[in-house]
Every structure is written in C-alpha cells, then in structure tokens.
Amino acid sequence: MTRIAVVVFPGSNCEYDAANAVSDLGATPSFVWHSADSLGDVDGVILPGGFAHGDYLRPGALARFSPVMDAVRGFANEGGPVLGICNGFQVLTEAGLLPGALQKNRGLTFLCQPTTLVVASTSSVLTRQATVGQRLSVPINHFSGSYTCDDATYESMVANDQIVLRYEENPNGSRDNIAGVSNVGGNVVGLMPHPERAMSTLLGSADGRVLLGSFVGLSADALV
Amino acid sequence: MASSLNRVNYSVTVDVTLRAGIADPEGATIERALPALGFSGIANVRAGKSFRMTVEADSEADALAKATSLAQRLLSNPVMEDSVARLSEGN
User: Fold this and answer.
1) What CATH homologous superfamily does B2-20+48-87 map to?
2) Do B79 and A146 touch (CB under 8 A)?
3) Taking CB atoms and an 8 Å limit, are A93 and B79 in contact across chains?
4) Residues of B (34-73) whose Cβ lies below 8 Å from A
5) What is the pLDDT of residues B25-77, one digit of tens each?
6) What is the Cα–Cα distance from A156 to A101, expressed in whole angstroms?
7) ipTM of the predicted structure?
8) Chain B contacts of A106, Cβ < 8 Å?
9) pLDDT: is A217 or A86 the higher one?
C-alpha cells in the first residue's frame, strides 16, 4: 500500500481534499504537522494548498522555515516523490527545491476558475502516466500564481525537460504559460492548479486522477 | 558589561522591490491611475515593501551587514526581488 504524507501548516486548507484524493486512488494518507521533524515511513509527500503562515511576507516565505521542511528536503534529495499543489508549489520554490518563483497574477485579481492544462513532459512523478500534449481540465484558485524566472533558469529548465504542465490559455501572466515544473530529477513537482479538486466527473472533471494516480504510483489501468 | 560597551541600537530600513525585468502589475496599475488624479510627468512607478527595524550592532557597517543578510534570506525572494538595507533617519 502506498503511503503519502500530507504536510499541514498553520493556514493550510486543502489537506483534506488532498488526503481524500489519495485515499480515492487506493493509497493511504497521513497528516504531518509542520513542526514535526520527521515525515514518518512514507512513499511520497504532498504539500497542500492554502495560506501557510497566513501567506505573510510572501506565500511560502515563512513556511520554508517550518521544522518539517528539513525532512521534506532530505526526502527530496534522496529521490523521494514530493508534490506541491498551489501554496505547496509556492513553498517549494521559496525553499529552493524548485526553480523560479510565483508572483502576483498579472491582473491583480484572485482567480478561481477551470483551466485547460497541456501536458508538456512525462518525465515527472506527476505526469509519468500521462501523454505529452494531453489536455486536462483542472481548476486554479490563487492570487500569486504567475510563474517567473530569469532567462538562464528558463533555458536550463527547457533543456532538462522540467516544464511539466502549461496552461492552454494563460490566466495569470505566467512565463511561457507555465502551470507546473519539476526539479532536474523529476521527483519534485509543483503546480498551481488543483488536481485534487478534479477527481470526479460529478464535480466537473476527473482529469486530476491521471496526475495524482501517477504520483501515488498506481497503474493507469486502475484509474477508472 | 565590557563586552557590550560598543553595542548600539541602529534604526535600519530595508526596501524590497521587484527586480528589473520582472513584471510589476501593482506599479503599472498605480501609474495608469495617475492621469485621472491630475498627476502628470510621473513614470516608472514600482511598488515594493519597506521594513523598519532596530538592530543592535557594534557599528553602522555591522548593523547594515546584519540587515542585508536578513533581507536576502527572508525579507526578499532574490529570484524576483532586490533588497537594499540603509540606515534610517534619526540614528
């Protein structure tokens, strides 16, 4: 049974959605409070959405110093699968585990809407069961989701196949329509859209299942 | 205490602004509003943050060094922001 730690910061608010999605895919979630110094015996880690530490200063700026982040960094450096969703993505960039940064949306408005994503790479733990060019309907829900990085970082990300997902239509001003990126190894991934909110056609889309199913390591055949 | 004889409190300000080349939608929005308010001849508006603090240090240079380190590690994200520490008025 795949075990997934879901890290909970003060101000996280998508941890139950993430845990439910993981359970729905046949894996076992466990919550880990941000002050813990260990993740426990797990096969993967999710940093969920929300407003860790109130998003004070900058989203993710204070969460990066939470004690649990040392364990997340150690797990990531050993090749363990780490996924940051929305605020979790912001935390991973602030922690330096992913390149670039997320700045305020181009239009200075909070965006809460469905988006169409296009899979750009299948080298990451989030997309290994998807196909390049596959279009997925997954909602966004953020104020600071405009992905930015300098030219040298961008070129190295392209060269290393680190751009994982792009928006079909750019909602927030992200560079090159980037919605999600990975580290060089592909085991650490962050994305602004919420795949855990796209788990059932009854609620609008089940396209998040191929992403989270990839992450928890189920075969694509199990994703019905 | 002899060891702290030279330690003085310095008022320090750290300014954080988006790096050149990084889009600044807040600054741009403010700039677009200026004509409607009757302001003309104002360009290149950049929005940012300012942090004020009291730093106990041995010298002005020491105070600025401490504040600069804080600015680079926490107050700014160097991927998209520049930071400058300076002594505030009144030191």
Assistant:
1) Phosphoribosylformylglycinamidine synthase subunit PurS (3.30.1280.10)
2) no
3) yes
4) none
5) 999 999 999 999 999 999 999 999 999 999 999 999 999 999 999 999 999 99
6) 15
7) 0.83
8) 23, 25
9) A86
CATH of the domain at A69: 3.40.50.880
**Cβ <8 Å between B25 and A173:** yes
Contacts of B29 in chain A (CB under 8 A): 108
Which residues in chain A (140-159) have CB-CB distances under 8 A to chain B? Answer: 146, 148-150
Domain ranges for chain B: 2-20+48-87
For chains A and B, count residue pairs whose Cβ atoms are closer than 8 Å: 35
Catalytic residue positions of A? 86, 194, 196
Could B26 and A104 be called an inter-chain contact, meaning their C-beta atoms sit closer than 8 Å?
Answer: yes
The parent domain of residue A32 ranges over 3-222
Q: Given an 8 Å threshold on Cβ–Cβ distance, is B22 in contact with A148?
A: yes
**Total domains in the fold of chain A:** 1
Three-state SS string over chain A comes to: CCEEEEEECCCECCHHHHHHHHHHCCCEEEEEECCCCCCCCCCEEEECCECHHHHCCCCCCCHHHCCHHHHHHHHHHCCCCEEEECHHHHHHHHCCCCCCEEECCCCCCCEEEEEEEEECCCCCCCCCCCCCCCEEEEEEEECCCEEECCHHHHHHHHHCCCEEEEECCCCCCCHHHEEEEECCCCCEEEECCCHHHCCEHHHCECCHHHHHHHHHCCCHHHCC
